[in-house]
């Protein structure tokens, strides 16, 4: 799904204009980024949670030359699905 398709779907589902839907979705992502940048977690019961995880610096390999390269430390975004969402996605699992 593209950004435009997401905005269309949200505007239809919420019965709001596409402009309002785009501002709302953009604001949501801005808030998630702002909160998780500070190391906090954003949780939505029944859906899941967004958090960050720290990756240590490590040595990798250039696949073309095989030479060792240093991969710097970084912060990555992580999403953990709630048990409710997992059950919704996997209805035949017991």
Element pattern in H and E: HHEEEEEH
Widest β-sheet, arrangement of strands:
1-2-5
- The first-level CATH class name of the largest domain: Few Secondary Structures
CATH topology of the largest domain: HU Protein, Chain A
Q: Architecture of the largest domain in CATH?
A: Irregular
The level of helicity is 40-55%
Gyration radius from CA atoms, angstroms: 19 Å
Give a quick account of the main beta sheet: strands, pairing sense, barrel closure: 3 strands, antiparallel
Kindly report the average pLDDT value: 94
Structural write-up:
This protein is α+β, with helices and mostly antiparallel strands and 94 residues long. The chain folds into 2 domains: 1-40; 43-94, HU Protein, Chain A (Irregular). It is built from 3 helices and 5 strands, in the order ααβββββα. The chain has helices spanning 3-14, 18-37, 83-89, and strands at 42-44, 48-55, 58-61, 68-71, 74-81. The strands form 2 sheets. The chain has a 3-stranded antiparallel sheet with strand order 1-2-5. A two-stranded antiparallel ribbon has the order 3-4. The longest helix is centred in the first third of the chain and has 20 residues, at 18-37. The radius of gyration is 19 Å and the shape is extended. The model has no long low-confidence stretch (mean pLDDT 94).
Compact overview of the structure:
This protein has helices spanning 3-14, 18-37, 83-89; strands spanning 42-44, 48-55, 58-61, 68-71, 74-81. It is an alpha+beta fold and 94 residues long.
List keywords for this structure.
HU Protein, Chain A, 3-stranded antiparallel beta sheet, 94 residues, single chain, two-stranded antiparallel sheet, 41% helix, alpha+beta, 2 domains, 3 helices
